[in-house]
Design brief:
Layout (H helix, E strand, L loop, with lengths): L3 H4 L1 E2 L4 E2 L4 H11 L3 E6 L5 E7 H7 L12 H4 L7 E2 L4 H11 L3 E6 L2 E7 H7 L2 H12 L1
Parallel strand pairs: 2-3, 5-6
Antiparallel strand pairs: 1-7, 3-4, 6-7
Organism: Streptomyces broussonetiae
InterPro entries: CBS_dom, CBS_dom_sf, Diverse_CBS-Domain
Pfam families: CBS (PF00571)
Length: 139
């Protein structure tokens, strides 16, 4: 069985919900990623959302807001999706395809330990599985 931990990119970086979007963008640049899990220090550093580079552009900059004044917590919304590290990769594919999400945090012992992205999926699936995944996410 291939698990989420087997295919994830390890070492996902967190950003606290009180940090500003300009700091999130700097972290994304420095780590070469397009998304960061957002933690809530007031709730035991549990994940309270995820922020993407697209969120920063579309929900802040394009609306005329200052990324130095808007926090990650201001634009995180909804229940964050994640997968347990020991879960079969088929569960990750269903979660990502069913919710049309492109990145999925991987959690072990209630802590984010990595992230599954489209690139990780592409490296570990057959061509047929990859085609089905792409159809579900982008349909």
């Amino acid at each position: 069985m291939t698990t989420a931990k087997d295919i994830m990119h390890p070492g996902a970086q967190w950003i606290p919900r009180y940090e500003t979007l300009d700091r999130a963008a700097q972290m994304m640049r420095d780590h070469g990623v397009g998304a960061l899990p957002v933690s809530d220090p007031e709730n035991g550093d549990r994940m309270c959302g995820i922020i993407t580079d697209r969120d920063i552009v579309v929900r802040c900059v394009a609306e005329g807001h200052d990324p130095a004044r808007v926090t990650c917590g201001d634009i995180c919304e909804g229940t964050p999706r994640w997968i347990d590290a020991a879960s079969d990769i088929s569960l990750a594919l269903r979660e990502m395809g069913g919710r049309q999400i492109r990145r999925l945090p991987v959690v072990e012992n209630k802590r984010v330990i990595g992230m599954i992205s489209e690139a990780d999926i592409a490296r570990h699936l057959s061509d047929d599985q990859l085609a089905e995944f792409v159809h579900r996410v982008y349909a």
